[in-house]
Amino acid sequence: MSVLTIAEAAELIAARKLSPVELAKTHLERIRRLDPQLNAFLVVTEDRALADAKAAEARQMSGALRGPLDGIPIAHKDIYNTAGIRTTAHSRLLQDNVPTRDAHTVKKWADAGAVMLGKLATHEFAFGGPSFDVPWPPARNPWNRDRFTSGSSSGTGAAVAAGLILGGTGSDTGGSIRGPAALCGIAGIKPTYGLCSRVGILPLAFSLDHAGPMAWTAEDCGLLLQGMAGHDAGDPASVARPVADFTAELGQGVKGLRIGVVRHFFETDNRASDATRAGIDAAVDFFRKEGAEVRDITLSPAADYHAVGYLLMIAEAFTLHAPWMRERFMEYGELFRDRVSLAAMMSGPDIVQATRRRRVLCREMAAAMEDLDIIVSASQMGEAPRIDSVPKWANMEKPSLTMPFNVTGFPAISVCTGFGVAGMPVAMQLAGKPFTEPTLLRAAHAYETAMPWRAKRPAMAG
Amino acid sequence: MPVPPSIDEAELAVLLKRAGLALTANQVKAILPGADIVQRMIARVHAPLPREAEPALTFDVEQD
Questions:
Q1: What is the residue extent of each domain of chain B?
Q2: Domain boundary assignment for chain A
Q3: Which tens digits make up the pLDDT trace of A437-458?
Q4: Looking at this predicted complex, what is its ipTM?
Q5: CB burial class (10 A; 0-12, 13-18, 19+) of residue A240?
Q6: Which chain A positions have a beta carbon within 8 Å of B7's beta carbon?
Q7: What's the CATH code, domain A6-302+355-461?
Protein backbone atom coordinates (compact mmCIF):
# COMPACT_ATOMS: atom_id res chain seq x y z
CA MET A 1 0.00 0.00 0.00
CA SER A 2 1.42 3.42 -0.93
CA VAL A 3 1.30 6.08 1.73
CA LEU A 4 -2.02 7.87 1.71
CA THR A 5 -2.84 11.37 2.80
CA ILE A 6 -5.28 11.77 5.66
CA ALA A 7 -7.91 13.10 3.26
CA GLU A 8 -7.51 10.05 1.01
CA ALA A 9 -7.54 7.57 3.89
CA ALA A 10 -10.58 9.23 5.48
CA GLU A 11 -12.49 8.99 2.23
CA LEU A 12 -11.67 5.30 1.84
CA ILE A 13 -12.54 4.56 5.47
CA ALA A 14 -15.85 6.37 5.12
CA ALA A 15 -16.60 4.33 1.99
CA ARG A 16 -15.65 1.10 3.84
CA LYS A 17 -12.90 0.50 1.29
CA LEU A 18 -10.11 0.70 3.84
CA SER A 19 -9.89 -1.10 7.16
CA PRO A 20 -8.52 1.02 10.03
CA VAL A 21 -6.98 -2.15 11.49
CA GLU A 22 -5.19 -2.98 8.23
CA LEU A 23 -4.07 0.64 7.94
CA ALA A 24 -2.66 0.59 11.47
CA LYS A 25 -0.87 -2.72 10.82
CA THR A 26 0.63 -1.32 7.62
CA HIS A 27 2.04 1.67 9.47
CA LEU A 28 3.29 -0.42 12.39
CA GLU A 29 5.14 -2.58 9.87
CA ARG A 30 6.62 0.53 8.24
CA ILE A 31 7.77 1.71 11.67
CA ARG A 32 9.40 -1.67 12.37
CA ARG A 33 11.16 -1.61 9.00
CA LEU A 34 12.19 2.05 8.68
CA ASP A 35 12.37 3.62 12.11
CA PRO A 36 15.63 1.91 13.15
CA GLN A 37 17.22 4.11 10.48
CA LEU A 38 15.36 7.26 11.51
CA ASN A 39 14.95 7.28 15.32
CA ALA A 40 11.69 9.15 14.88
CA PHE A 41 9.91 7.14 17.60
CA LEU A 42 10.84 7.03 21.28
CA VAL A 43 8.02 4.62 22.05
CA VAL A 44 5.80 2.57 19.73
CA THR A 45 2.44 1.83 21.35
CA GLU A 46 1.44 -1.17 19.23
CA ASP A 47 -1.17 -2.59 21.59
CA ARG A 48 -2.79 0.81 22.02
CA ALA A 49 -2.73 1.39 18.25
CA LEU A 50 -4.43 -1.90 17.49
CA ALA A 51 -7.05 -1.32 20.17
CA ASP A 52 -7.74 2.19 18.80
CA ALA A 53 -7.93 0.79 15.26
CA LYS A 54 -10.32 -1.98 16.25
CA ALA A 55 -12.61 0.55 17.92
CA ALA A 56 -12.48 2.72 14.80
CA GLU A 57 -13.29 -0.27 12.63
CA ALA A 58 -16.28 -1.13 14.81
CA ARG A 59 -17.58 2.42 14.33
CA GLN A 60 -16.90 2.14 10.61
CA MET A 61 -18.94 -1.03 10.32
CA SER A 62 -21.80 0.36 12.38
CA GLY A 63 -21.97 3.66 10.50
CA ALA A 64 -20.85 5.63 13.53
CA LEU A 65 -17.57 7.16 12.34
CA ARG A 66 -16.69 10.31 14.23
CA GLY A 67 -15.21 12.23 11.29
CA PRO A 68 -12.15 12.37 9.06
CA LEU A 69 -9.67 11.53 11.83
CA ASP A 70 -11.42 8.31 12.78
CA GLY A 71 -9.01 5.43 12.12
CA ILE A 72 -6.10 7.69 11.07
CA PRO A 73 -2.61 6.66 12.30
CA ILE A 74 -0.95 9.50 14.21
CA ALA A 75 1.68 9.98 16.88
CA HIS A 76 2.56 12.67 19.40
CA LYS A 77 5.69 14.70 20.02
CA ASP A 78 7.07 13.50 23.32
CA ILE A 79 6.29 16.71 25.16
CA TYR A 80 2.55 15.96 24.91
CA ASN A 81 1.35 14.13 28.02
CA THR A 82 -0.14 10.72 27.33
CA ALA A 83 -1.87 8.95 30.20
CA GLY A 84 -0.05 5.78 31.18
CA ILE A 85 2.55 6.24 28.43
CA ARG A 86 6.01 7.60 29.13
CA THR A 87 6.45 11.29 28.26
CA THR A 88 10.10 12.27 28.43
CA ALA A 89 10.68 15.53 26.52
CA HIS A 90 13.63 13.50 25.15
CA SER A 91 15.43 14.27 28.40
CA ARG A 92 17.22 12.28 31.06
CA LEU A 93 15.36 14.35 33.64
CA LEU A 94 12.01 12.86 32.65
CA GLN A 95 13.07 9.48 31.32
CA ASP A 96 10.80 7.68 33.80
CA ASN A 97 7.93 10.16 33.71
CA VAL A 98 4.54 8.54 33.13
CA PRO A 99 1.67 11.06 33.22
CA THR A 100 -1.72 10.12 34.53
CA ARG A 101 -3.66 12.38 32.15
CA ASP A 102 -3.64 13.12 28.45
CA ALA A 103 -2.83 16.59 27.18
CA HIS A 104 -6.00 18.41 26.14
CA THR A 105 -5.17 18.06 22.44
CA VAL A 106 -4.15 14.39 22.80
CA LYS A 107 -7.57 13.70 24.23
CA LYS A 108 -9.28 15.66 21.48
CA TRP A 109 -7.57 13.60 18.77
CA ALA A 110 -8.37 10.39 20.63
CA ASP A 111 -12.00 11.48 20.94
CA ALA A 112 -12.01 12.09 17.19
CA GLY A 113 -10.99 8.47 16.67
CA ALA A 114 -7.33 8.92 15.74
CA VAL A 115 -5.15 5.82 16.17
CA MET A 116 -2.10 6.55 18.32
CA LEU A 117 1.03 4.72 17.20
CA GLY A 118 3.45 6.15 19.74
CA LYS A 119 5.58 9.03 20.95
CA LEU A 120 8.01 10.95 18.78
CA ALA A 121 11.51 12.32 19.18
CA THR A 122 11.95 15.99 19.99
CA HIS A 123 14.83 18.27 20.76
CA GLU A 124 15.32 18.13 24.52
CA PHE A 125 12.48 20.08 26.15
CA ALA A 126 11.65 21.38 22.65
CA PHE A 127 14.86 23.39 22.51
CA GLY A 128 18.19 21.60 22.84
CA GLY A 129 19.10 19.73 19.69
CA PRO A 130 20.26 17.91 17.74
CA SER A 131 21.76 16.29 20.84
CA PHE A 132 23.90 13.16 21.00
CA ASP A 133 24.32 13.22 24.79
CA VAL A 134 20.71 12.56 25.84
CA PRO A 135 19.23 9.07 26.39
CA TRP A 136 17.91 8.67 22.84
CA PRO A 137 19.54 9.56 19.52
CA PRO A 138 18.20 12.46 17.44
CA ALA A 139 15.76 11.80 14.62
CA ARG A 140 17.24 11.56 11.13
CA ASN A 141 15.99 13.13 7.93
CA PRO A 142 14.34 10.51 5.65
CA TRP A 143 15.54 12.33 2.52
CA ASN A 144 19.13 11.72 3.64
CA ARG A 145 19.84 10.18 7.02
CA ASP A 146 23.08 12.13 7.38
CA ARG A 147 21.08 15.33 7.36
CA PHE A 148 19.36 17.33 10.08
CA THR A 149 15.58 17.32 10.47
CA SER A 150 15.56 20.73 12.15
CA GLY A 151 13.57 20.88 15.34
CA SER A 152 12.29 20.79 17.79
CA SER A 153 9.45 18.63 16.38
CA SER A 154 12.10 16.49 14.73
CA GLY A 155 10.47 13.07 15.13
CA THR A 156 7.15 14.30 13.75
CA GLY A 157 8.87 15.76 10.68
CA ALA A 158 10.80 12.55 10.01
CA ALA A 159 7.87 10.21 10.71
CA VAL A 160 5.44 12.06 8.45
CA ALA A 161 7.94 12.40 5.60
CA ALA A 162 8.79 8.69 5.75
CA GLY A 163 5.13 7.72 5.86
CA LEU A 164 5.37 6.12 9.29
CA ILE A 165 2.33 8.14 10.33
CA LEU A 166 -0.14 10.26 8.41
CA GLY A 167 0.06 13.17 10.82
CA GLY A 168 1.38 14.16 14.19
CA THR A 169 1.59 16.86 16.79
CA GLY A 170 4.28 19.49 17.00
CA SER A 171 4.91 22.53 19.10
CA ASP A 172 6.35 25.82 17.95
CA THR A 173 8.04 28.43 20.15
CA GLY A 174 10.35 29.95 17.55
CA GLY A 175 9.76 27.73 14.52
CA SER A 176 9.68 24.18 15.89
CA ILE A 177 6.80 23.07 13.66
CA ARG A 178 7.73 25.03 10.54
CA GLY A 179 11.47 24.25 10.69
CA PRO A 180 11.18 20.46 10.56
CA ALA A 181 8.27 20.73 8.15
CA ALA A 182 10.56 22.69 5.82
CA LEU A 183 13.63 20.47 6.08
CA CYS A 184 11.63 17.23 5.90
CA GLY A 185 9.54 18.41 2.95
CA ILE A 186 6.12 18.28 4.59
CA ALA A 187 3.51 20.82 5.75
CA GLY A 188 3.24 22.17 9.27
CA ILE A 189 1.07 24.93 10.66
CA LYS A 190 1.65 27.05 13.72
CA PRO A 191 -1.86 28.27 14.45
CA THR A 192 -2.82 31.60 15.94
CA TYR A 193 -1.73 32.01 19.57
CA GLY A 194 -4.63 30.86 21.71
CA LEU A 195 -6.31 28.65 19.10
CA CYS A 196 -5.01 25.32 20.48
CA SER A 197 -4.74 24.54 24.17
CA ARG A 198 -1.27 23.89 25.64
CA VAL A 199 -2.65 22.12 28.72
CA GLY A 200 -0.64 18.96 29.31
CA ILE A 201 2.17 19.97 26.93
CA LEU A 202 5.55 20.56 28.53
CA PRO A 203 6.18 24.28 28.08
CA LEU A 204 9.30 25.94 26.74
CA ALA A 205 8.21 29.58 26.86
CA PHE A 206 4.59 30.23 27.74
CA SER A 207 4.15 33.49 25.84
CA LEU A 208 5.56 32.02 22.62
CA ASP A 209 4.51 28.35 22.75
CA HIS A 210 1.97 27.11 20.20
CA ALA A 211 0.57 23.61 19.66
CA GLY A 212 -0.14 22.55 16.09
CA PRO A 213 -0.21 19.74 13.55
CA MET A 214 2.21 18.46 10.91
CA ALA A 215 1.26 16.33 7.92
CA TRP A 216 2.11 15.64 4.28
CA THR A 217 -0.26 18.30 2.93
CA ALA A 218 -1.85 21.57 3.96
CA GLU A 219 -5.26 19.92 3.59
CA ASP A 220 -4.25 17.26 6.10
CA CYS A 221 -3.01 19.97 8.45
CA GLY A 222 -6.47 21.52 8.24
CA LEU A 223 -8.14 18.22 9.12
CA LEU A 224 -5.80 17.68 12.06
CA LEU A 225 -6.18 21.27 13.25
CA GLN A 226 -9.94 20.81 13.25
CA GLY A 227 -9.42 18.08 15.80
CA MET A 228 -7.09 20.16 17.99
CA ALA A 229 -8.54 23.68 18.07
CA GLY A 230 -11.00 24.99 20.58
CA HIS A 231 -11.29 26.84 23.84
CA ASP A 232 -9.87 25.29 26.98
CA ALA A 233 -10.33 27.18 30.22
CA GLY A 234 -7.26 25.39 31.54
CA ASP A 235 -4.96 27.41 29.27
CA PRO A 236 -5.04 31.11 30.20
CA ALA A 237 -4.09 32.01 26.62
CA SER A 238 -6.88 29.94 25.08
CA VAL A 239 -9.35 32.07 23.16
CA ALA A 240 -13.09 31.51 23.59
CA ARG A 241 -14.45 31.87 20.08
CA PRO A 242 -16.20 29.58 17.63
CA VAL A 243 -13.81 27.22 15.83
CA ALA A 244 -13.66 27.89 12.10
CA ASP A 245 -14.04 25.20 9.46
CA PHE A 246 -10.40 24.92 8.44
CA THR A 247 -11.05 23.13 5.18
CA ALA A 248 -14.02 25.24 4.14
CA GLU A 249 -12.05 27.44 1.73
CA LEU A 250 -9.98 24.68 0.12
CA GLY A 251 -10.43 24.60 -3.61
CA GLN A 252 -11.37 28.27 -3.89
CA GLY A 253 -7.96 29.22 -5.30
CA VAL A 254 -6.14 32.44 -4.58
CA LYS A 255 -7.97 34.83 -6.89
CA GLY A 256 -8.48 38.13 -5.14
CA LEU A 257 -6.21 37.37 -2.22
CA ARG A 258 -3.86 40.19 -1.28
CA ILE A 259 -0.36 38.87 -0.75
CA GLY A 260 2.67 40.71 0.64
CA VAL A 261 6.20 39.41 0.17
CA VAL A 262 8.66 40.28 2.96
CA ARG A 263 11.54 40.05 0.53
CA HIS A 264 14.12 41.70 2.79
CA PHE A 265 13.71 38.90 5.35
CA PHE A 266 15.14 36.24 3.03
CA GLU A 267 17.18 38.34 0.61
CA THR A 268 19.13 40.65 2.92
CA ASP A 269 18.31 40.12 6.62
CA ASN A 270 19.22 36.42 6.40
CA ARG A 271 19.84 35.49 2.79
CA ALA A 272 18.30 32.19 1.82
CA SER A 273 19.79 29.70 -0.61
CA ASP A 274 19.31 30.09 -4.35
CA ALA A 275 16.85 27.16 -4.38
CA THR A 276 14.82 28.59 -1.51
CA ARG A 277 14.59 32.01 -3.16
CA ALA A 278 13.78 30.45 -6.53
CA GLY A 279 11.02 28.40 -4.92
CA ILE A 280 9.49 31.47 -3.32
CA ASP A 281 9.75 33.45 -6.58
CA ALA A 282 8.01 30.63 -8.44
CA ALA A 283 5.27 30.48 -5.81
CA VAL A 284 4.76 34.24 -5.98
CA ASP A 285 4.51 34.01 -9.78
CA PHE A 286 1.93 31.25 -9.36
CA PHE A 287 -0.14 33.33 -6.95
CA ARG A 288 -0.02 36.32 -9.31
CA LYS A 289 -0.99 34.27 -12.36
CA GLU A 290 -3.89 32.75 -10.42
CA GLY A 291 -5.30 36.18 -9.72
CA ALA A 292 -3.83 37.24 -6.41
CA GLU A 293 -2.66 40.82 -5.89
CA VAL A 294 1.01 40.58 -4.95
CA ARG A 295 3.38 43.30 -3.72
CA ASP A 296 6.53 43.55 -1.66
CA ILE A 297 6.25 44.88 1.89
CA THR A 298 8.78 46.06 4.44
CA LEU A 299 8.79 45.23 8.13
CA SER A 300 11.42 45.84 10.80
CA PRO A 301 14.59 43.82 10.29
CA ALA A 302 14.17 40.14 11.08
CA ALA A 303 16.89 40.59 13.69
CA ASP A 304 14.55 42.82 15.72
CA TYR A 305 11.89 40.11 15.87
CA HIS A 306 14.54 37.48 16.53
CA ALA A 307 16.13 39.36 19.43
CA VAL A 308 12.78 39.93 21.13
CA GLY A 309 11.65 36.35 20.64
CA TYR A 310 14.92 34.70 21.55
CA LEU A 311 15.49 36.74 24.71
CA LEU A 312 11.96 36.17 25.97
CA MET A 313 12.21 32.50 25.06
CA ILE A 314 15.35 31.83 27.10
CA ALA A 315 14.13 34.02 29.96
CA GLU A 316 10.83 32.14 30.17
CA ALA A 317 12.55 28.77 29.72
CA PHE A 318 15.02 29.57 32.48
CA THR A 319 12.18 30.63 34.77
CA LEU A 320 10.63 27.19 34.29
CA HIS A 321 13.83 25.16 34.46
CA ALA A 322 15.81 27.11 37.08
CA PRO A 323 15.10 24.75 40.00
CA TRP A 324 16.36 21.74 38.01
CA MET A 325 19.18 23.65 36.36
CA ARG A 326 20.48 24.68 39.77
CA GLU A 327 20.39 21.15 41.15
CA ARG A 328 20.71 18.81 38.17
CA PHE A 329 22.59 20.87 35.60
CA MET A 330 24.62 18.02 34.12
CA GLU A 331 21.56 15.84 33.58
CA TYR A 332 20.52 18.13 30.73
CA GLY A 333 22.12 17.77 27.33
CA GLU A 334 24.84 20.28 26.58
CA LEU A 335 22.85 22.22 23.99
CA PHE A 336 19.85 22.83 26.23
CA ARG A 337 21.80 23.75 29.35
CA ASP A 338 24.26 26.01 27.57
CA ARG A 339 21.65 27.86 25.55
CA VAL A 340 19.24 28.39 28.45
CA SER A 341 22.02 29.34 30.90
CA LEU A 342 22.50 32.52 28.91
CA ALA A 343 19.25 33.84 30.37
CA ALA A 344 21.33 34.61 33.45
CA MET A 345 22.70 37.58 31.54
CA MET A 346 19.35 39.32 31.38
CA SER A 347 18.27 42.01 33.80
CA GLY A 348 14.72 43.02 34.65
CA PRO A 349 14.91 46.11 32.39
CA ASP A 350 16.17 43.91 29.54
CA ILE A 351 13.04 41.77 29.79
CA VAL A 352 10.75 44.78 30.11
CA GLN A 353 12.39 46.40 27.10
CA ALA A 354 12.02 43.19 25.05
CA THR A 355 8.35 43.11 26.04
CA ARG A 356 7.86 46.75 25.02
CA ARG A 357 9.55 46.15 21.69
CA ARG A 358 7.39 43.08 21.17
CA ARG A 359 4.33 45.30 21.46
CA VAL A 360 5.72 47.65 18.81
CA LEU A 361 6.45 44.75 16.47
CA CYS A 362 2.96 43.30 16.97
CA ARG A 363 1.45 46.65 16.03
CA GLU A 364 3.73 46.92 13.04
CA MET A 365 2.74 43.53 11.68
CA ALA A 366 -0.95 44.14 12.32
CA ALA A 367 -0.73 47.45 10.45
CA ALA A 368 1.17 45.85 7.56
CA MET A 369 -1.51 43.20 7.27
CA GLU A 370 -4.49 45.55 7.39
CA ASP A 371 -4.84 45.39 3.62
CA LEU A 372 -3.24 41.97 3.14
CA ASP A 373 -4.46 38.40 3.54
CA ILE A 374 -1.13 36.56 3.34
CA ILE A 375 2.53 37.32 4.00
CA VAL A 376 5.13 35.26 2.13
CA SER A 377 8.62 34.59 3.44
CA ALA A 378 11.04 31.69 3.86
CA SER A 379 10.67 28.96 6.49
CA GLN A 380 14.32 27.95 6.58
CA MET A 381 17.33 29.41 4.85
CA GLY A 382 18.07 26.40 2.68
CA GLU A 383 18.40 22.64 2.64
CA ALA A 384 19.10 20.56 5.73
CA PRO A 385 22.75 20.64 6.85
CA ARG A 386 24.59 17.54 8.02
CA ILE A 387 23.25 16.52 11.41
CA ASP A 388 26.76 16.25 12.85
CA SER A 389 27.75 19.78 11.89
CA VAL A 390 25.00 21.93 13.38
CA PRO A 391 26.75 24.61 15.47
CA LYS A 392 25.73 25.03 19.09
CA TRP A 393 24.74 28.64 18.48
CA ALA A 394 23.14 28.05 15.07
CA ASN A 395 19.70 29.09 16.25
CA MET A 396 21.04 32.41 17.56
CA GLU A 397 23.66 33.61 15.12
CA LYS A 398 21.37 34.60 12.28
CA PRO A 399 17.80 35.83 12.59
CA SER A 400 15.10 33.19 12.40
CA LEU A 401 12.38 33.93 9.85
CA THR A 402 9.83 31.88 11.74
CA MET A 403 10.24 33.77 15.03
CA PRO A 404 8.34 36.90 13.86
CA PHE A 405 5.11 34.89 13.94
CA ASN A 406 5.78 33.56 17.44
CA VAL A 407 6.48 37.08 18.65
CA THR A 408 3.20 38.32 17.16
CA GLY A 409 1.18 35.12 17.52
CA PHE A 410 0.00 35.30 13.90
CA PRO A 411 -0.64 31.94 12.16
CA ALA A 412 1.98 30.61 9.73
CA ILE A 413 2.45 27.48 7.65
CA SER A 414 5.48 25.95 5.96
CA VAL A 415 4.93 24.46 2.51
CA CYS A 416 7.43 22.50 0.41
CA THR A 417 8.52 24.40 -2.73
CA GLY A 418 10.80 21.82 -4.33
CA PHE A 419 14.34 20.57 -3.88
CA GLY A 420 17.79 22.11 -3.76
CA VAL A 421 21.16 21.18 -5.19
CA ALA A 422 21.66 18.40 -2.63
CA GLY A 423 18.26 16.90 -3.40
CA MET A 424 16.83 18.01 -0.08
CA PRO A 425 13.50 19.87 0.30
CA VAL A 426 13.20 23.65 0.41
CA ALA A 427 10.15 25.58 1.56
CA MET A 428 8.28 28.83 1.87
CA GLN A 429 6.33 30.24 4.78
CA LEU A 430 2.86 31.74 4.45
CA ALA A 431 1.48 33.78 7.35
CA GLY A 432 -1.94 35.29 7.91
CA LYS A 433 -3.89 37.52 10.25
CA PRO A 434 -5.03 36.04 13.56
CA PHE A 435 -7.67 33.32 13.19
CA THR A 436 -7.54 33.32 9.38
CA GLU A 437 -6.25 29.75 9.17
CA PRO A 438 -8.91 28.81 6.57
CA THR A 439 -7.49 31.40 4.16
CA LEU A 440 -3.91 30.44 4.93
CA LEU A 441 -4.69 26.79 4.26
CA ARG A 442 -6.60 27.74 1.11
CA ALA A 443 -3.53 29.47 -0.36
CA ALA A 444 -1.19 26.66 0.69
CA HIS A 445 -3.54 24.04 -0.74
CA ALA A 446 -3.89 25.92 -4.03
CA TYR A 447 -0.11 25.98 -4.38
CA GLU A 448 0.41 22.34 -3.37
CA THR A 449 -2.20 20.95 -5.72
CA ALA A 450 -0.78 22.90 -8.68
CA MET A 451 2.81 21.77 -8.10
CA PRO A 452 4.41 18.31 -8.40
CA TRP A 453 6.16 18.28 -5.00
CA ARG A 454 3.50 16.28 -3.09
CA ALA A 455 3.94 13.36 -5.48
CA LYS A 456 7.54 12.77 -4.43
CA ARG A 457 8.38 10.91 -1.20
CA PRO A 458 11.85 10.14 0.19
CA ALA A 459 13.35 7.11 -1.57
CA MET A 460 13.45 5.13 1.67
CA ALA A 461 9.69 5.63 2.08
CA GLY A 462 9.07 3.46 -0.98
CA MET B 1 22.09 50.20 17.10
CA PRO B 2 24.70 50.88 19.81
CA VAL B 3 27.63 48.48 19.85
CA PRO B 4 27.26 46.35 22.98
CA PRO B 5 30.17 45.97 25.34
CA SER B 6 31.78 42.56 25.03
CA ILE B 7 31.47 40.29 28.01
CA ASP B 8 34.39 38.39 29.49
CA GLU B 9 34.51 35.10 31.31
CA ALA B 10 34.77 36.65 34.76
CA GLU B 11 31.71 38.85 34.27
CA LEU B 12 29.71 35.97 32.79
CA ALA B 13 30.69 33.73 35.70
CA VAL B 14 29.35 36.33 38.15
CA LEU B 15 26.04 36.56 36.31
CA LEU B 16 25.66 32.79 36.18
CA LYS B 17 26.48 32.47 39.87
CA ARG B 18 23.95 35.18 40.72
CA ALA B 19 21.35 33.12 38.84
CA GLY B 20 22.21 30.14 41.00
CA LEU B 21 24.09 28.20 38.33
CA ALA B 22 27.34 26.60 39.38
CA LEU B 23 29.31 26.23 36.17
CA THR B 24 32.95 25.23 36.00
CA ALA B 25 35.45 27.59 34.41
CA ASN B 26 35.50 25.41 31.31
CA GLN B 27 31.72 25.47 31.07
CA VAL B 28 31.69 29.25 31.35
CA LYS B 29 34.31 29.46 28.62
CA ALA B 30 32.22 27.16 26.41
CA ILE B 31 29.19 29.44 26.48
CA LEU B 32 31.09 32.70 26.03
CA PRO B 33 30.48 32.80 22.23
CA GLY B 34 26.76 32.49 22.89
CA ALA B 35 26.98 35.21 25.52
CA ASP B 36 28.34 37.64 22.94
CA ILE B 37 25.35 36.94 20.70
CA VAL B 38 22.92 37.47 23.59
CA GLN B 39 24.71 40.70 24.44
CA ARG B 40 24.03 41.94 20.91
CA MET B 41 20.37 40.92 21.18
CA ILE B 42 20.02 42.80 24.47
CA ALA B 43 21.52 45.90 22.87
CA ARG B 44 19.06 45.56 19.99
CA VAL B 45 15.98 45.52 22.22
CA HIS B 46 17.31 48.60 24.03
CA ALA B 47 17.39 50.69 20.84
CA PRO B 48 15.09 53.73 21.28
CA LEU B 49 11.41 52.93 21.11
CA PRO B 50 8.79 55.12 19.48
CA ARG B 51 6.75 57.18 21.88
CA GLU B 52 3.62 55.21 21.08
CA ALA B 53 5.26 52.01 22.34
CA GLU B 54 3.40 52.26 25.61
CA PRO B 55 2.17 54.74 28.19
CA ALA B 56 5.31 54.45 30.30
CA LEU B 57 7.16 56.35 27.58
CA THR B 58 5.20 59.58 27.86
CA PHE B 59 8.04 61.42 29.56
CA ASP B 60 11.66 62.03 28.59
CA VAL B 61 14.25 64.24 30.20
CA GLU B 62 14.70 67.15 27.77
CA GLN B 63 18.25 67.33 26.53
CA ASP B 64 20.11 69.42 23.98
A1: 9-48
A2: 6-302+355-461
A3: 999 999 999 999 999 999 999 9
A4: 0.95
A5: exposed
A6: 345
A7: 3.90.1300.10
